[in-house]
Write a structure and sequence with these properties.
With 196 residues, this protein is mainly alpha-helical. It has helices spanning 12-16, 24-45, 49-58, 62-72, 82-85, 91-108, 110-126, 134-151, 160-177, 182-192. Helix 8 (134-151) crosses helix 9.
Length: 196
């Protein structure tokens, strides 16, 4: 993983994410949105669970992010030391930690994200399919495949066309999350998507 900065996000970034009292329903909606953002990062930049945990450790956020990941992917808890797998989860703390981790990883892969978005913009102008460009076609195929593997039994998004639309929207969002203040943008987006 190549860093574009010598230092991780400073501790004040954590405090910049406004404290809110989120009820369980709101938190569940936020978690679904975060899962989709992570899916987009994984599909484009091959960011997997190990990379996420390494990035969180670099930011001193590993316990919170690990708690989030094990709560969303219970099969991982079998392979973790008992002290890590059984930590009580603090949902909002874990979500805020993951926001910072996602933005850090987005910055790590900003060049790739920017190239993909630039190609997408050109394809829109040319009225061509994203599958005409290998990078975008591979991204969409991987996103679809990963989504089907993880949410096959859940009634969230049905058709391939709708999945492609979501994947391309997330790709553009990743570019915004990779820049200065990306953590503010992502946190604001999550809060807006989780109305009371």
């Amino acid at each position: 993983m190549r860093s574009t900065s010598n230092s991780p996000l400073l501790p004040h970034h954590w405090e910049e994410l406004t404290h809110t009292k989120l009820d369980p329903t709101q938190l569940d909606k936020i978690k679904v949105q975060l899962d989709l953002v992570l899916l987009a990062l994984e599909a484009l930049a091959r960011v997997d669970t190990n990379v996420i945990i390494q990035a969180a450790a670099h930011l001193n956020l590993e316990p919170q992010v690990l708690a989030y990941i094990t709560s969303r992917q219970p099969q991982l808890s079998d392979s973790l030391p008992e002290s890590e797998a059984s930590q009580p989860q603090r949902d909002e703390e874990a979500v805020r930690s993951l926001v910072l981790t996602i933005c850090y990883l987005s910055r790590q892969h900003q060049e790739l994200i920017r190239r993909a978005v630039t190609l997408l913009e050109q394809l829109v102008v040319d009225r061509r399919s994203p599958h005409d460009i290998a990078l975008l076609g591979d991204y969409l195929d991987t996103f679809n495949q990963l989504y089907q593997e993880r949410w096959l039994d859940e009634d969230k998004i049905a058709t391939s066309d709708l999945l492609n639309s979501v994947a391309l929207k997330l790709l553009v969002e990743l570019l915004f999350y990779s820049g200065p203040g990306g953590h503010h943008r992502l946190w604001s987006r999550l809060l807006k998507g989780a109305p009371e």
